[in-house]
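yo, Glycoside hydrolase family 3 C-terminal domain-containing protein is done. seq:
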Amino acid sequence: MSEATRDRLGELTTEEKASLTSGADFWTLKPIERIGVPSIMVTDGPHGLRKQAADNDHLGLNDSVPATCFPPAVGLGSSFDPELAERVGVALGVESAIEDVAVILGPGINIKRSPLCGRNFEYVSEDPLVAGVIGAGLVTGIQSQGVGSSLKHFAANNQENDRMRSSSDVDPRPLREIYLRGFERVVKDAQPWTVMCSYNRINGVYASEDPWLLTEVLRGEWGFEGLVVSDWGAVNDRVAALAAGLDLEMPFSDGTTDRQVAAAVEAGDIDAAVLDTAAGRILDLVDKALARPAVAGPLDVDAHHALAREVAGRSIVLLKNDAVDGAPLLPLAPEASIALIGEFARTPRYQGGGSSHINPTRIDTALDALTEAAGDRVAFAPGFAFDPRTDAAEQNRLREEAVALAGSRDVAVVFLGLTDPEESEGFDREHIDLAPHQLDLLDAVVAANPRTVVVLSNGSVVALPFADRVPAIVEAWLLGQAGGSATADVLLGDVNPSGRLAETIPHRLEDTPAFGSFPGSFGHVRYGEGIFVGYRWYDARRMDVAFPFGHGLSYTTFSYGDATARVDASGDVVVTVPVTNTGARDGREVVQVYAAPESSVVERAPRELKAFASVAVAAGETREVELRIRREDLAYWDVRVDRFVVEGGTYRIDVAASSRDIRSTVAVEIDGDEVRLPLTGESSLAEVLAHPVVGPIVQERLAALRESAGGAMDADVMGDDTIEKMMQSFPIGRLAGFPGMGVDREQVAQLLALGNAPQQ
Ligand code: BGC
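structure:
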């Protein structure tokens, strides 16, 4: 807290301090004119500004001032490029500053635990590293403009179903390694001005009133310096929330909760210093907002639209591009006549429903962009109507018209996807299928013209039962307001696709990690899959998937040379690999580095992403790519000592083009963190053997025993190793007096005392 803030706090009454810690209305904080504290505005987020000038709501129902709708996180995350995210952040900051918005409510980096989560389009990845790195890029960019960000939704908010009550019941390892890790990275790397706590409970405790989450972990362990704001309506018990570390309740109450806070302070139920701290953080936030350099409007709509188009182009993932008649179907041949099919090409779905809903400055459609580029080589048929109430005869007519068109053209490009009512904030999907009439249409089109490209518009993965039957598939997600032109850029080859899947596309919902435990029941959802989320799950079970995490094709090809890996002075692992663009086009490759220890004391995924880089490589060029694995990212959460621990030993480093396309593997030796646990009679023989002091003594004793037992231990039949393995879990205390062991209680006690004695 600054000196100035402390002074101003001294001038405020308890009631005034309490009033500072909740909103004035939906989007503004309360001023205290008496001492010159103005009201500041906070507004959604995350992929564009939703500043409401008139009727306010937090569900995206009423209009907001026009703003650039950048690709939602599902798109941006697929770029695997934090620099691109930072540029988007800068643009969001500029738009916020022009509109005098102090804090933009984003990014959202919750883990995509299940493809069913209705809000996955607003989240980055199933992997915490991708979520954290992209999130940090956005925050850095936004805040470089003197505008605050709000990292949300903290934490373990991975579904919409019952989101305001449900308890996410998560064990410590997955909580730390999967669900909190991205937040930890953003907080440590980018210091967001605010963190937004989520609606849900975590292991029974509301996030809004969890002192462990909001204070111990966020501030104590991670060093968060900003303020914690509630999600809109997330406060259950305001006084408990304040005590837990929630500084600002949003949106507003009728004054009741402010009075509760003031009364609790007066009655001594809560320390006055706690309210001072929260009110001080609000004053600090206001100061930061006031320090923002003035930004002259108006918004350069064209420049931001161009950026939105560039980013959308970088977000598209080319899933499949088989050769037909000797050449890949994409990019579309320059002279090809095109049957453009699917309502999404004319009426794009470019964002999701709910609080992130932007009023865009303009909207590009693929139909317009392709027509502009290819003229009358393009003919369009909607193929289906979005409205599920459309009668069957009309859907049939639309299908027949499209099929006839497909048969008369060189190539068919079919836009399929999810409609607004199928996917939104506020509710989850119940399946991952495209509408039957869309799938029927595709089958009929492919029968009429096998040269068919599918373009998908969806905020989260859908099943692709047709994947083997169509030669080319473009995953075009929800791409923001310039998605239509960006999709045309990729189809025509003006942009070489470089997006990669930040979430696995499974064959079936039944294959997904949370199947059977999503969305839970009776107010609880048990995260039974533990750390095995996303590709960690499919890899551990060696399951076939439709398209793996990290996958994405290009119009060129890349080859990888031999990777090297070394541990540098800081303990990080530096990986280098030469990457050559072996094709005829310039392109970008997303180089991915996965790691896993060769053996571990805990369950581990077969590989985990530890570093990645999106690099531009010109045709024919070779680039030496250097990637850094942070030492702390190798750690697992050790429940015995309640901290992250790096295990010592050999780690396998896979340098890869996707989680299932490993191009070079190297090994690296890592020095482990020391974990000193007191030895007790319950310590297993394995634990005792691992002890630096008593381990060698016991080892010697065992060798002597083996020697003296000779044939009696039947080492020839079982092998020394087998016997040791059998003994590994034997508690040392129970060895005392055990027949044939030759150790008594006194000796065991001495051993334990030696092990527990302070070491020099
Ligand atoms: C959402 C937040 C959003 C807030 C304000 C809530 O319903 O969960 O993400 O920032 O509303 O609109």
